[in-house]
Amino acid sequence: MNVLGISGSLRKGSYNSMALRAAQKLAPPGMKIDVADISAIPLYNDDVRAAGFPDAVLALKERVRAADAILLVTPEYNFSIPGVLKNTLDWLSRPPEPPFDGKVVAIMGASPGQVGTARVQYHLRQVLLFMNTFTVIKPEVFINNCATKFSPEGELTDAPTAKIITELLAALEKMKQRVG
After folding, report:
1. Which residue range is the domain that position 69 belongs to?
2. For residue 36, what is the domain's CATH number?
3. Number of folded domains in the chain?
4. Which residues contact 122 (CB under 8 A, 6 or more apart)?
5. Mean of the pLDDT values across residues 68-83?
6. Pick from 97, 108, 100: which is nearest to 128 by CA?
7. Is 112 in contact with 147 (CB distance < 8 Å)?
8. Of 52, 54, 108, 115, which is closest to residue 85 (Cα–Cα)?
9. 26 and 92 in contact (C-beta within 8 Å)?
10. Fewer CB in 10 Å around end: N or C, the chain?
């Protein structure tokens, strides 16, 4: 199973990117998680879209289309979706043939706070519902107090977090099998 992982943070030392790399290592046998870089996606402008999708958007659309499933890993900015991730989803939701249509998606996120990205995940679920995805509901992976769960080198050190990420990936695989 080929999964495309997208981090909603561009920061070099992003805990969410660390969590995405941890998911790559925790993937069950037969699952491969590739990571997409969204830093080159321009700000959405419908005039630009009408003239032709930018190359970075076309390339990402093709990667999403080719993936069996998507793993979104995101921080929470101001109780919601980081602009860079929402912008990317806006580009990917536009016709023709939006690549998220019918795609299986899982969400997880890391935050230094106590809530651990619960609010952003709720907002993402609303957006993904409109984008016609099959989104994994449980388990919920809210990595709170994230600075205590990764080593200075960026390795996940928290066993309960590793366990819940493993469970999320298994649920993603199971949902993909169910919906085809």
Report:
1. 2-179
2. 3.40.50.360
3. 1
4. none
5. 97
6. 100
7. yes
8. 108
9. no
10. C
The residue type found at 41 is: I
Could you give phi then psi for residue 105, rounded to 5 degrees? -135, 140
Q: Summarize the confidence of residues 10-37 as an average pLDDT.
A: 98
Mind giving me the DSSP string for the chain? Answer: -EEEEEES---TT-HHHHHHHHHHHHPPTT-EEEEE--TTPPPP-HHHHHH---HHHHHHHHHHHH-SEEEEE---BTTB--HHHHHHHHHHTSSSS-TTTT-EEEEEEE-SSSSTTHHHHHHHHHHHHHTT-EE--SS-EEE-SGGGSB-TTS-B--HHHHHHHHHHHHHHHHHHHHH-
**Six-digit token pair at 36?**
């997409």
Q: Which residue reads 């890993």 in tokens? A: 73
Helices 83-92 and 55-66 cross at an angle (nearest 10°) of 80
pLDDT averaged over the chain? Answer: 97
Q: Are 132 and 101 in contact (CB under 8 A)?
A: yes
